[in-house]
Design goal:
Layout: H1 13-36, H2 41-49, H3 56-59, H4 62-75, H5 80-93, H6 108-131, H7 137-144, E1 147-148, H8 152-162, E2 168-172, E3 175-179, H9 183-207, H10 215-229, H11 238-249, H12 258-277, H13 279-283, H14 287-315
Antiparallel strand pairs: 1-3, 2-3
Helix pairs in contact: 1-2, 1-4, 2-11, 4-5, 4-11, 5-6, 8-9, 8-14, 10-11, 10-14, 11-12, 12-14
Transmembrane segments: 112-133, 186-204, 260-279, 285-306
Organism: Streptomyces wuyuanensis
InterPro entries: GT87 (IPR018584)
Length: 316
């Protein structure tokens, strides 16, 4: 994904990267239009929500990954091998596309989709291993990361600092993180909440009995939301994933996630306000910077809780 711009030697790296991001955007839009109609709410969610992030979609490769996850989710019911393969390729770049297969119907569809995803992911990682040194090194870095200033745990630590508590901000692993008192227990609490989210999703998978065509869509959005809000890191580009999954949900009239999708729009706008507009305030932990991130995180938390409740009510 990072080396793909080299396929266009007549362009600068940034020009080629931006062109690929725009192409991926077009792929997502076309997939949503085919599934829900060119004027459907799914298309409007994507085309209206993505510009709220300003330049971020053009500077990160999350749109490209979303261009694998969205078609995977839309294809998995009728063409499980294709859907699984696309999800596996996406998961080889960023792990979250694997969650698009959480809600696949039990039986043959799940077996085919999950097997195709595993084969595609293993093949992609093996190909990377031949050309790059340490292709899975990012996993070790993720394990070493602390509590990022924009995460839900970071908002807790920011409140502590605003109320007179101790705490410093340091630049580590490409992000600004808290160091000092309470960081370790907050980080551990985040990991415990992530484990609880996993168990909740597993329980849902075992107990879900009522299904509609929207169930895989709704489950994918719920899963990514839960893992986002419990993470020690919430980067603004994560909203790209959520916008894409919410847009897929809105292609079905049976979705339970319409109120959740609406909550994601102000959360996206506030993410851009936090970064890049007010980022100096955020890392300085001023009342304005801390307040913007806190409100954004509360919106994401509300969206995650609402998503889980509505998914459970619609299927269990």
């Amino acid at each position: 994904m990072i080396l793909a711009p080299a396929l266009f030697p007549w362009l600068t790296y940034f020009q080629a990267f931006a062109a690929l991001a725009l192409l991926a955007d077009a792929v997502v839009t076309a997939a949503l239009a085919r599934a829900g109609g060119p004027g459907g709410p799914g298309v409007w969610m994507w085309t209206g929500g993505l510009p709220l992030l300003m330049h971020i979609p053009l500077a990160r490769y999350d749109v490209q990954v979303t261009a694998l996850a969205v078609p995977a989710l839309l294809a998995v019911h009728r063409r499980p091998r294709l859907g699984g393969a696309l999800a596996g390729l996406g998961a080889a770049v960023k792990l979250w596309p694997a969650l698009t297969l959480l809600g696949t119907p039990r039986g043959r569809t799940t077996r085919l989709a999950w097997a195709s995803a595993a084969a595609a992911a293993i093949g992609a990682v093996a190909a990377l291993a031949l050309g790059l040194a340490g292709p899975l090194g990012f996993l070790r870095q993720q394990g070493d990361r602390g509590v990022q200033v924009e995460s839900l745990g970071g908002s807790v630590l920011a409140l502590n600092r605003l109320l007179g508590g101790e705490g410093r901000i340091e630049y580590r692993y490409g992000a600004f993180e808290f160091t000092g008192p309470y960081v370790t227990p907050v980080a551990r609490a985040s990991l415990l909440l992530t484990a609880a989210a996993f168990l909740l999703l597993l329980l849902w998978r075992l107990r879900a009995r009522r299904r509609s065509d929207a169930t895989p869509f709704d489950a994918a959005l719920c899963a990514v939301l839960l893992f986002t809000v419990t993470s020690r890191v919430i980067s603004p580009q994560y909203l790209i994933w959520l916008l894409g999954l919410a847009a897929v949900c809105l292609t079905s009239r049976h979705t339970s996630q319409r109120p959740v999708a609406l909550l994601l729009l102000p959360a996206t706008a506030l993410s851009t306000l936090a970064y890049p507009v007010l980022y100096q305030d955020v890392i300085d932990v001023t009342p304005v910077g801390g307040g913007v991130v806190l409100v954004r995180n509360l919106l994401l938390l509300a969206a995650a809780v609402l998503s889980a409740r509505r998914l459970w009510a619609a299927t269990v």
